[in-house]
Write a structure and sequence with these properties.
The chain is built from ten helices and five strands; from the N terminus they run βββααβαβααααααα. It is of the alpha/beta class. The longest helix has 22 residues.
Length: 231
């Protein structure tokens, strides 16, 4: 099974978001792609504040065309952090990605941490990625290092001895919702779900009802899974 490490930067967080930057690395061949595109819709201010790519910076860039990347992206296992976000934008651009490994979900299964964003895990695990800026290519380099650390942890935790077995387990973990430990929003931000369940279970029940009212595609799968346990 071959993999590619992939990250995107987009116009915004909306489900209809479009691609602004695509970066990926094929570790089998050493090939690195890092390209910018002019999206069909403007980049939002909130998105610019995150990735610092402005409409002016991509005004003379080409529109994204899937053809040059289709085979490499669709025929390999995509490794991404918060993979559903990247996969959705690829689909918005007319691509049909295949299998994927979500390092965010895998990390939640095998690492105890207060946060699981890419840069937090980078420093928590002491990943040596010199000069990796916060853009799609920089995140790909951090992602590659994180994947290596997770791969080792998964092998040890589940007593796996081959790369193929480890990749299969990481695919399985990606398909399995992980139990959240800490709340990262609302009036109980920083508290564990267990603590809130013991002191204000009605709040979790209200939160569960609120989340379940959303369309299925917009529900936070991990949050729903966790709330079912504590409600």
């Amino acid at each position: 099974m071959n993999i590619i490490f992939l990250d995107t930067e987009t116009t915004d967080l909306d489900p209809a978001r479009r691609l602004v930057q695509l970066a990926y690395k094929n570790p089998q061949t050493g090939k690195i792609v890092n390209e910018f595109y002019k999206p069909p819709s403007p980049i939002s201010i909130s998105a610019m504040a995150v990735h610092h790519i402005t409409n002016e910076m991509v005004a003379d860039k080409p529109k994204f065309e899937a053809a040059p990347h289709a085979a490499e992206i669709t025929e390999n296992i995509i490794v991404a952090h918060n993979a559903p976000f990247d996969l959705e934008v690829l689909k918005n651009e007319g691509m049909e990605p295949g299998q994927h490994i979500d390092t965010l979900r895998v990390a939640r299964h095998v690492i105890s941490a207060e946060q699981y964003n890419l840069q937090y895990l980078r420093y928590l695990l002491g990943l040596d990625v010199a000069g990796a800026a916060h853009d799609a290519l920089g995140d790909v380099l951090v992602l590659e290092a994180l994947f290596g650390a997770l791969k080792k942890t998964v092998a040890e935790k589940f007593a796996l001895t081959t790369d193929e077995a480890v990749l299969e387990k990481m695919l399985e973990l990606t398909r399995t919702p992980a139990l959240l430990t800490h709340m990262n929003f609302g009036k109980y931000r920083g508290k564990t779900f267990e603590e809130v369940a013991a002191t204000d279970k009605s709040y979790l029940q209200w939160l569960q009802g609120s989340e379940m009212q959303k369309p299925p595609a917009e529900q936070n799968e991990e949050l729903v899974f966790t709330l079912k346990k504590y409600c």
